[in-house]
Amino acid sequence: MPLATLPAASSRLLRAIALTSIVLSLALGASSAGAQTIPTDAKATCTVSSTQFSGWFQSGHPALNGIVNPANSVTFSNPAADCPFYQWSKQMFLWLTSPAPSLYGGGAHVMDSPVFYDVSPVIGGKRTLIRHVVGALRPIQVRAAQVGPHGLPVVVDTAGRLIEFRRATADETPMIRSSAGKLVPLASLTRDASLRVIPQDASGKVIALAPRSQVISKLPLAKRIPATLFRISGIPILLDSTGNVIETEEGQAGGDGVLLTQGNSLIYYVTMVNDVYAYFATMVAHQTLNTNLQFPTTQAQLNTLIAFAAQHNETFPDPNALAIEVKSSWVRASSLPNNGAGYITMEATVPTYTVSANNQTWTPTGGPEENVLLALVGMHIVGSAAGHPEMIWATFEHFGNTPNASFQYINTANQTKQVGQSTAGSWLFTAATATTPNFNVVRAMVDASNNDLIAVAVPPPTGASASNGVVPTDVLRIMAWGAQFNQKPNPLVASTAAANTEVISIHNSVKGFMPAGDIRNNYFMTGATWTEGGANPTGSFPGGNGVGTSQISNSTMETFQQSSGNSVPSVNCLDCHSNSVASTPSTSANVSVSHIFVDDNTGVRLIQPLF
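Below the sequence we write its predicted structure tokens.
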């Protein structure tokens, strides 16, 4: 396939997504050749029983690619234990990727059916809900920047803290503070072998900087003044409000990083919500928005919503799922072995793209879009449940995506075992020869002014030519199961190994009951997070109340927000999806945890009603 026909960002995709629907297929076959394995001898600390698992299926027993019922979020048990949250997450994944029951109105899968709605990008300060129509195609877009609680893009500094930033305007002159405390005009940038930025003045002299520990505010993220992103000599740099350089994880300052596979195929993203979420947003829109308003978690709240929907001739087939939000990532199936066999797939419409002669810029052609088959590589599942208005945040990936960094777990003999890091094998996002510091480095980003993809000036990754340009990133899942080496992720486990073992255990338990050949066996959960007692999120444990696997990242969605080392805190969902200072203070989470629902910086509702 010529490079010029590869999909890319398009200004047309910033309009509301046309009324479309996913057309999914369960193509059976071998998955892409990766070396990802999950220990089979993990201690069984989080499991499902045979009876419990059979009850998940509509047929009452495990069936090959069979219909799974959603977890009952209204009766969700909320004990002081992690396992019920992981069980909820696994069941929801199997439900969403099940064939759609006829009651759902058709569609290859539950998330393809008319029970779900696409969420458009923000256009004119608004998001539109677009109901799925069976048989119609949807246009989708490349990666959008990961945003923080104020709706601004975020990066991770060298201490593992999230930094929100704004993009500099064309007429802004970057003034950088030197180690002597003086502001000096920044003229050019280079990088050293470790990818660290080296600033220079107009004469080409290197500007000595203040120590790293002095360049970041100690204020909570919600109260920090955003940094400013400049792009000089093709290299991004972040400056705080007083001109100090913010040292980010090496090579990750761009914020608008675009992910490509090792075969130069772009990754696309789509956000969906279910009927309960859509009608809840519509009901809220017809009343005065209260920033303390919570997603439904009780039967009484659900009954009010069911009655509101009935007034508009709408019946929820599975209301006990409560409010569900799904974010998913996709790659062109034709770029995969066997055209995506072993992946859940969908048909979609993607834009075409013109590549510059030196591969430094990919420009949307604005011409005819192309209908393609895409394969699912990653998924976030977010849902409200009894006692948890902040929602449960779970994430899943395909086995062939990305290798893990080293991790520990506890085996059946009660021994702590360590699995070493290895990139050996064939990975979708990682070269077998990849080495530090080449992991998770932004090598291409979106130019926010025109939606071009532009190369980021960094040394080429291992095995790449010196010409660089828009090239793939070598990806590593730093914290394989949402826990760093030196810090347990929640107060209910004795160690990081114990936390990892719970997630590994639930995977092994479910897979032990799943029929062989089920397409869903090719995906695994890396973790789930929530807050203690459903409280307003205050960040990750131990400094905050975000628990579970409170250091999780999806390698296809938080690629560039991961820490560089296993002992440095990473981004957690609830670090970004929290109630900021714009919200009325509350001990419980409100709708502003969802970035698609409300602009938490202003308190203004983004999502538009269905009618």
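The chain has two domains: 3-148+258-603, 161-239.
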